[in-house]
Amino acid sequence: MKHSTDLHPALAPVFATALQEKRLVGCVATVSHRGEIIYQQAHGMADRESQQPMAEGTLFRLASVTKPIVTLAALRLADKGILDLQASVTRWLPDFRPELANGVQPEITIHHLLTHTAGLAYGFNQPDYIQQGISDGIDRVDFDLYENLRRIAAAPLLYEPGKGWNYSLAMDVLGAVMEQATGQSLATVIEEEVSRPLQLKGLGFVAAQEMNLATPYANASPEPVRMTENMNVLFPDGGNAVRFSPSRVFAADAFASGGAGMFGCSDDVFQVLETFRTNHNNFLSPQLYQTLFKNYAVPSAAVGDPGWGFGYGGAFLFDPLQSGTPQSEGTLQWGGVYGHNWFIDPTQELTVLLLTNTAYEGMIGRLTLDIRNSVYQLLA
């Protein structure tokens, strides 16, 4: 890839079209190449009804963009000997013992949680979880994290840990493990292991009402609709729905969801992603850092499009040709249901982050592909 700092002419029409076609309300996009930010800009509205423009410092409900942040913190704890990635979850959560459908109670390890190979699920992809009243960490409920763990443990595992892959509440379980292992709240762990060493100021689990949070919207025709409390938003295929509670981020009594509960600004999330890419200042030990960019999903697992598996923190691209993407083998990528998408291409020294307030356009919509393709075309 050649180096270029002129992404604005290529990306300006991409965002203009998404806004004009009313697929998007607002966003902040950041791109870096070889460690230099070559594009960073806000587009559209943070709140359409009050005509509040989006700004680069606007805060977003991060949804699953929480996961790479919590992953980094967990790996730091592993480096310090506080967590053992191959140890059983019951070492820290003795009552968390979900069973297979046949009644067998297998061992679930920290590694299984980090890679979504534990046999767990989300409510939006598993009816048993809905029947148990399990929270996905996006909705608002009147019980705490440990009651949610009790309900998760009461639902049958989908497969023997390590023998399958399914996107799940594993990171919420891991958050509880981290609390028990350190004797601190998950918020404090994130502050001490991620925010403070990286000098991040805007990450958290509970926001104040006066903070500048983007208003969330859901794709609809003729334009996105403002989200309401515990609103069910169908995925584009119409099969499953996620239940959103926009007020959850302001609720001091809402449990800290390690998979979906954080808020933050683009700059801070971007620093986390760049830390994944570069391991600047040996943020993780070299031995542990080498474990990040690998595929831990079984070959038969369906992790999004063909050619993708799963590593620590996101999906791992092991076959670009099969996937039909310009991204390099070894790319790590994921998103968040409030409307976010990110990827790290270590081979091309490329990091791309899109935070939007529009579900699901900013996560899996045309906008994500248009940005990706424009970046690679210009830097080719």
From TrEMBL:
This is Esterase EstB. Residues 14-362 form the Beta-lactamase-related domain. Its EC number is 3.1.1.-, 3.1.1.103. Transmembrane segments: none annotated. PANTHER family: BETA-LACTAMASE FAMILY PROTEIN (AFU_ORTHOLOGUE AFUA_5G07500), BETA-LACTAMASE-RELATED. It holds the Pfam family Beta-lactamase. GO terms for molecular function: hydrolase activity. Keywords: Hydrolase. It comes from Vibrio mangrovi.
